[in-house]
Task: inverse folding
């Protein structure tokens, strides 16, 4: 193995070698009085971006990058994101060896299209690169994901990671998603961790970290650069906002944040909270309401769902639709009523689910 291929292998990271077993908390008739933990194992990534309730057309923008050696054998696998009509954003180290092919897949995993790039461009100092394709992928019904130019990600934010790499069963090549949290920020990068419940692994290098921006649009906030060798610890992402000027100079036809897209089957009329805004659906059409000063996303009894409300009128007291952990106690709000359950009553800990970011009771396997 050459030094180049060893470097590529060390950086190939795949999503979702989930460590341990995630369990949900199921409570008796009075949730405030008792808690019953039951096993609900998630031993691999989820197939849908549940944390963001993303539109499937945008999920298809996440693509596979296969690297071939001189004998046309697969040397390595990376991931990337379509950020313009025919431009893919990935990690620079994914382009360090061999011939490249880029492919897109349908939600069922069938190959939608495969391309030989016409040009690749690597950032001079950052682990970020652009791959230009010979045709506009949007003609196939794929919706590009805009880059995060504002840099709105902060420590402790929940974030959606994605990639085509190896799962905990050894499988590779299927798109998987996980919810994780930002644990450290620098000007150039950020580190994420789900405390060994989810992580990137071999093959996810170049894959995106996704968030919803201040206007409710899904954007690429990070590009996976490297992670832990055991595929179960923290992962480091290049901060896209720090390279936004270079990306714009080398890919002038980038997608712009615009129409708010979402999976209304996940969001519904009840809605969800994202940062300082509320996302909900009306007649299967996503709506995003940015909360003004003095208000935040909370439960609106008159609407029967999550909307922008003042602190005084929020019966959920700022808990939000995902719930929260207060030590070992899980607290959540249902239809405007606050409940809590002591997870340690059944030997569990309160954590945020690696599937969708919801507060759950997580019992040891």
Result:
């Amino acid at each position: 193995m050459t030094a180049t291929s060893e470097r590529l292998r060390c950086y190939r990271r795949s999503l979702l070698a989930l460590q341990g077993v995630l369990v949900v908390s199921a409570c008796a008739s009075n949730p405030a009085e008792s808690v019953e933990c039951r096993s609900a194992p998630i031993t691999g990534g989820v197939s849908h971006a549940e944390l963001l309730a993303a539109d499937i057309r945008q999920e298809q923008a996440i693509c596979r990058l296969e690297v071939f050696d001189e004998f046309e054998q697969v040397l390595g696998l990376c991931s990337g994101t379509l950020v313009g009509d025919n431009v893919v954003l990935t990690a620079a180290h994914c382009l360090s060896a061999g011939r490249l092919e880029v492919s897109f897949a349908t939600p069922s995993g069938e190959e939608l299209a495969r391309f030989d790039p016409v040009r690749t461009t690597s950032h001079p100092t950052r682990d970020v690169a652009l791959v230009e394709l010979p045709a506009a992928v949007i003609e196939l019904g794929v919706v590009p994901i805009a880059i995060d130019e504002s840099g709105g990600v902060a420590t402790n934010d929940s974030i959606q990671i994605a990639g085509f790499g190896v799962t905990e069963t050894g499988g590779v090549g299927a798109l998987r998603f996980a919810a994780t949290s930002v644990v450290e920020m620098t000007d150039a990068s950020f580190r994420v961790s789900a405390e060994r419940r989810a992580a990137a692994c071999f093959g996810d290098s170049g894959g995106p970290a996704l968030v919803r921006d201040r206007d409710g649009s899904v954007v690429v906030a990070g590009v996976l650069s490297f992670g832990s060798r055991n595929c179960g610890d923290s992962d480091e992402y290049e901060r896209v906002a720090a390279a936004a000027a270079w990306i714009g100079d080398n890919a002038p036809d980038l997608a712009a944040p615009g129409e708010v897209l979402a999976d209304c089957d996940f969001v519904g009329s009840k809605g969800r909270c994202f940062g300082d805004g509320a996302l909900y659906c009306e007649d299967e059409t996503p709506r995003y309401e940015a909360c003004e000063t003095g208000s935040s996303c909370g439960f609106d009894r008159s609407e029967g769902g999550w909307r922008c409300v003042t602190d005084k009128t929020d019966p959920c007291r700022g808990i939000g639709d995902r719930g929260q952990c207060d030590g070992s106690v899980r607290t959540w709000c249902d239809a405007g009523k606050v409940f809590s359950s002591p997870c340690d009553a059944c030997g569990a800990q309160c954590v945020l689910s690696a599937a969708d970011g919801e507060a759950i009771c997580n019992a040891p396997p």
The longest strand covers residues 176-185. The CA atoms of residues 87 and 132 lie 5 Å apart. The domain at 1-263+352-365 is CATH 2.40.10.10 (Thrombin, subunit H).
